[in-house]
Amino acid sequence: MKQVVVGTAGHIDHGKTQLVKALTGIDTDRLREEKERGITIDLGFAHLKLSSDVRVSIVDVPGHERFVRNMVAGASGIDLVLMVIAADEGVMPQTREHLAICQFLGVERGLVALTKVDLVDSDWLEMVRHDVREFLRGTFLEGAPVVATSAVTGEGLEELRDELLRLCLEVPEKGVGASFRMPIDRAFTIKGFGTVVTGTVYSGKVRVGDTLELLPRGLSLRVRGLQVHGEDVEEVGPGSRAAVNLAGVGKEELRRGDVLVSPGTFALSLFVDVSFSLLSQARPLKNWARVRFHWGTAETMGRVKLLDREVLNPGERTLVRIHLEEPVVTAPGDPFVVRSFSPVVTIGGGRILDSNPSSRPIKRQELHGRLSALVGMPDWKRLEFFLLWSEEEGLGPQEAFLKTSRSASVEEVFREVLLRGRGLTLGGRYFYREAVVSLKRRLERTVLTFFDENPLRVFVSREEIQARMGKMDERVFDALLEEVAGDGKILLSSEGISLRASGPSLTSEEERWLEFIKDQFGKAKWSPPSEAQVFERGGIPPNKGRALVKLLLERGDLVRISREILLDRHWAQEMVARVQRHLVQKGELTVGEFKDLLGVSRKYAVPYLEFLDSKGITRRVGSVRKAKGRGGSGFKD
Asked: Which of 281, 361, 580, 624 could form a disulfide with 588 if both were Cys (CB 3.0 to 4.6 A apart)?
């Protein structure tokens, strides 16, 4: 069955609530104050089955100027508007304001109900019809049906239902969208059920038992039940007026303006980039003016940053960044309304271009140029532009999702970019193709520079190169290494990154020093000298000596036991063999027995045993060592 959301609009006391009751039999004034004062203060809800195939949800909004914020919340997400104008008064201030709000919210269809026709004669009615048509000229309601009605006599109600049905059939079916999103307009408690929230589903689907995320609080909430028009359902989708029974949250923790979304999809933002139009009857808007920003069912204060001028004149349209005092959960293409801080009147509105702009500083002129390029772009082109602007950072799946209209999955959108040869994936992130080429070149240069600066090194660790590359996602870095290695530019091994299989070229003097160092440690057996002692004995400059020791370690000729102790590889292997034979024979090894095995003092015995523990060859049990059960020497063979 087709679900259509209809919103009322119009001036206070023009009969919106009475008309809805006459159409549906439901009194949408639910607050005691509303019934006592005879005016609508908050949103009311009703439903109507127009045919076997079409069901309508009606959102009845307040007409009083003090409650326009509630009207904006109710009008968000409607498919068509029922503009109510009293025949005895005609077009009034809130009629004009409500029409402007509907235009800014992207409403494209509607009709007019001239109410209270039982109070006027035919001549007056025709004059009002003429005035209304003139008022609607140039708006989305130009040429819309104007139906004379009376909630008292029932006149025109059947015609109104017929026109509503015709318009509902014209409303296009909504795409499901990639992820669920529903701004909350009401929260209440039902005895025996718990907390219930209502709203219009903007996109996606949700089923009973699913988990949703509540933003901005970030709570994970389970869906206990779903209703549409008071009937239990298993699933709700786009365009539905839904009641959602939530587990794990109290009514007092919820407020109008909160949003239920699929977990891990949408994100909060404290500023949005938008196209913005200022009403012709509004005052000029200065740069950094404080305003009231209305999106969905939320209202928050913000400031308008004009990008191409210092003052926006009435009737003009431009691109702006709105800095918000509270975060919102918008999507590209979402409509919004702006009201002035004081006096509180509607002054403009527009569409979201970027719902989660980068926090990196950018000049106003450059930002204006980027936003100009986005206007009217399809999703794949938008994503391509954002990938280009993200440069070497790329976009993660959620970041990419936030740059699209959410009408399709980000994978589907990116596939379009791939088909045009302009995108690549690397380490789970999306990149513009040229950015990956740039990253690969930078990695190659970084590795080459390292070995130019360290000519005696054979290997460099991944961590050292990653640190030189700057902040980068670890998965992206690993994937980048594999790409460059696949191109044959570097070699990857368990020892690290190298440029060639052979060792570095040494001068004859360096070759002599290298052999001297190796010989010194070979002769010393298990009582090796310190590095400084070896360098002093051989007249080796310390910086050269340390580089040569690093080379011997990389080649496996030396083994580092501790920060102070290096051991010749042969003697390290022999130490392991002796310890393992001893443990096979006796089952355990004391420090004293170890000293006797190698003929060393405690100065060496303790570091050696700790080294064997760290390599999984032995394990300490009280004051003795036992075999850990892992074979091998614990270092390079």
From this structure: 624
Q: What is the CATH number of domain 435-498?
A: 1.10.10.10
CATH fold of the domain at 511-627: Arc Repressor Mutant, subunit A (1.10.10)
- The residues near 153 (Cβ < 8 Å, ≥ 6 apart) are 118
Q: Which amino acid is at 520?
A: Q
Complete DSSP assignment for 342-389: SS--EEEEEEEEESS---S---HHHHHHHHHHHTT--HHHHHHHHHHH
pLDDT confidence of residue 192: 84
For residue 71, the model assigns a pLDDT of: 75
> How does DSSP classify residue 395?
B
Measured CA to CA, the distance from residue 468 to residue 444 in angstroms comes to: 12
Highest-confidence segment of 8-12, 41-45, 157-161, 448-452: 157-161
Radius of gyration of the chain (CA): 37
Please compute the mean of the pLDDT values over residues 71-89 and round it to a whole number. 89
Asked if 304 and 288 touch (Cβ cutoff 8 Å), the reply is yes
Amino acid at 508: S
The pLDDT tens digits for 233-278 are: 999 999 899 999 999 999 999 999 999 999 999 999 999 999 999 9
Domains 435-498 and 511-627 share a fold: yes
Model pTM above 0.90: no
User: Of 76-80, 196-200, 301-305, where does the model show the most confidence?
Assistant: 301-305
Query: What topology does CATH give the domain 269-371?
Result: Elongation Factor Tu (Ef-tu); domain 3 (2.40.30)
Tell me: the pLDDT tens digits for 419-442? Answer: 888 999 999 999 999 999 999 999
Q: What is the dihedral of CA 539, 542, 545, 546, to 10 degrees?
A: 160
Highest CATH level, class, for 2-170: alpha beta
Q: Are 156 and 149 in contact (CB under 8 A)?
A: yes
Domain ranges within the chain, ordered by starting residue: 2-170, 181-261, 269-371, 372-430, 435-498, 511-627
